[in-house]
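Q: A reviewer asked whether we had any structural model of the full assembly, not just the individual parts. We don't, so I'm hoping you can provide one. Inputs are below.
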Amino acid sequence: MATITPLLPPAAGKVSDDKASAMAALESLLAIRFFEEAVDGMFARGLMHGTMHLSIGQEAVATGVCAALRQTDFITSTHRGHSHCIAKGADLTRMMAELLAKQTGYCRGRGGSMHIADAKTGNLGANGIVAGGIPIAAGAALAQKLKKTDNVVVSFFGDGATNEGAFHEALNLASVWDLPVIFVCENNKYGMSFSTAKSMKVERISERAAAYAMPGVTVDGNDVDAVYEATKQAVDRARAGQGPTLIECVTYRHKGHSKSDKNLYRTKEEIDFWKTKDPVGKFETLLIEKGILTKEQAEQITENVRNEIRNAITEAQAAPDSDPAELLSSVFRAVN
Amino acid sequence: MSERVITYAEAIREAIGQAMESDPSVFMLGEDIGVYGGAFGVSGDLYHRFGEERVRDTPISEMGIVGAAVGAALVGMKPIVEIQFSDFTAHAMDQIVNQAAKIHFMLGGELSVPMVLRAPSGSGTGAAAQHSQSLETWFAHVPGLKVVLPSSPMEAKGLLLSAIDDPNPVIVLEHKLLYKTSGHVPEEMYKTPIGVARVLREGKDLTIVATGVMVSRSLEAAAQLSQMGIEATVIDPRTLSPLDMGPINDSISQTGRVMLVQEAPKHVGFIAEIAARISEGPAIYSLTEPVKRLCGMDVPIPYAPQLEKAVVPQLPDIVSGAQDLMRGV
Ligand SMILES: Cc1ncc(C[n+]2csc(CCOP(=O)(O)OP(=O)(O)O)c2C)c(N)n1
Ligand SMILES: [Mg+2]
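A: Here is a predicted structure for the entire assembly that you could use as a starting point for your response.
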């Protein structure tokens, strides 16, 4: 088992104002970054198979959002879902084991990168189908309403997903039923190779909220504080029974879409420009500037997180491979 | 005491009502199921009995509502979705096939989707090609879905109660022509097991395996055949996934002849799976005649009544099909 400190909201104000909240957020950003770099490297060396979609450059979205959630709140995630899973509190060893096709992985090797779920932390699953999780989030939110809990559901998805019918159907349902759900769009400017400039006429994805009479906001998705504040407002609304919100987080992925990407659709200048807005370095610098952390403390956190990722890899590699013997008996849950 | 007789639609409504009374996590969602009572009148007064939260009218949004059912099921509810016509499941296929069916397996077994999707299926109402299909093969081909085709009021209630209790997604295809048919249905809650075929009639000469509305039609045909001196066994698999071949194989070993009857088009229809399993043995060694299939024609369902009747097996077709099989033609 390898974990980081669970995210927690600041006592008041911004994440970067509150030492405990800020330190946990920094751990989360670093864990996502190092996890992704580690699997990228293992993939390149042929130690992992399949494909995967990395969140490098987008760490602040999952981190800022999940800082506003409780463990009993739910999320639905996407093909680019490692960040959401980590920020919601998953065991890094079980994630790594899944990618390494081990029996101890979250899906026992049946799902891989695109299907990690973690019932314990309320992660209802990544999804290989673009926009597939959005109606599911609405349904999980409907269940909270029927059960009269005050839990909320966050649905993460990309810019490309907002052109799918599932997005529109889910937002409409959430709107007419006032569901406690927050729709979080990670607008990284591209759905695979196709830019938002070509795939939609609206300037901002948040404008689409107007069609469903819900608040729509656009925030800097590379800024943990901005993402947290928008999410906090939306969560408060949702818990109070005031219905859904659409939050657009503007961000950028540094790496290719998946393992087949040759970056033919964007320029090196554009990528370099966005690297100057790196959410991880930016947050760390902010904390040091604000005096929340010393440089030494930040280095210590970085070292600890690196060690956790190394532990995750070592533990996962030692686990048994996933077992074909149980395949047929796993399709259905046994009837009592 | 005379046995209580109710319709197929009433039997379904009774099952839902009893399930909702005994389990607060059961709720219904679908188009026009509230005050309207459902396009085929199945939900009826449930809205008045249980209120708008639990008998939930939805926008016309099949992908959205099936997705919402999947999400609610994932976190402990037991949703029953009504899709107004089974043809409209095409709009919701991602949620049915890529989500509901795969979640338990693909996500490693911690989560499951205890949801029921009910939909009116089949032809015979003059509704033409987009409101009359028999799409059971679509669902039966997807590992992770259970597929149930109730053929009588008694089966409709018992199978639905099993489906609601099942921790997996169950597709229940109800035949439109059966909604108004009546039969004895016990008042108490009872469960008909999913995955167990039923032998409705035993005869020594041939085995008829039929699904959906073809079950009652085959029983009628068997009565006529009996008067001609031909005794047929009639078997209703009741559930296509999982499929119970035991009674089918046993019967063939007695009769040596089998006729498979379905409403859906012949090409790649579900009944071909039964034929294939017979051919895998041991029943094939008992056959004295080749397997006979009686199916819908490989055309979309047409509107005109004489055309519509022509494309799916009717009572005389089943009778003459059985006679042909007996004569070896
Ligand atoms: C329904 C569906 N269509 C297409 C794909 C192939 N695909 C996978 S990810 C992707 C791009 C999605 O873009 P976006 O929603 O912006 O998410 P991002 O990859 O940028 O995080 C595509 C086209 C898919 N998995 N599912
Ligand atoms: Mg994108």
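A: Points you may want to mention in the reply: The first strand of chain A starts at residue 74 and ends at 76. The pocket of magnesium ion (ligand 2) is lined by residues A 158-160, 188, 190-191 (CB under 6 Å).
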